[in-house]
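Service request form, structural biology core

Requester: graduate student, group of Dr. S.
Request type: structure prediction, single chain
Budget code: on file
Notes: please return the result as structure tokens.

Sequence provided:
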Amino acid sequence: MCKKIFYLFSAFTFSITTVFSQVENEPKKNTLEFSTGFTFGYLKNLAFAPVRRYDYNAINYQFRYTRMTKREKLFEVQLDYLNSELETNIIPEPNPQYSKIILNISSLKQVYKNDKVKVHVGLQTQTNVSSYFDWKQYDFQQKLGVAGRFVYQINNKQSLSSKITIPFILWRTSTFEENFYSISKYQSVLWTTEYKYNLSNHFDLKVSYNLNYDKLQIFNAYRELQHQINLGINFKF
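Core staff response, request fulfilled:
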């Protein structure tokens, strides 16, 4: 009797261990990411001030949630925040306070996959909210564009990825104007490249570089070029 109980207990323990081991080793479908780093950029907004170029630099913060569906469809939500001063030597006034919040939402479909490479394409919407002088003036921009993500798996521990987004329409409402622009007057590119190192089954270390460029070809011209270098950690579940 004792032997039967022992065998049953052993079989049960082995089954439970096997099930949990398989679950633990399954690819994780969800990822939460937090990163922070350094941002430097250049801004021209003639509706705000007749300055050829403002310079700014700041610490930025980035949060991202990623979901991979059963059909290998990639859903991403990313939030960025920075707070800085706009610097120029052209006008003798106090440096304006400049804050910016960026929200990206993208839905990408897998179009190619092999042992090393994955490619997704789809649409991305981006919301930019900028404030000047602590919200005394604001600039709200809503963009829609096409996006593509390329992932290269170097080995079991390391991977490289790159994502590029080309917005083709812009709706802008602000202290300065309210208007809708198409690609004839509005050009933009958003590019991100990342390196990830797998620390464990649940955590990755990430280093990334982001480039954001916007150009409005109107009378009150608007241009912004922004660079970001970030270090972060990913939690997979």
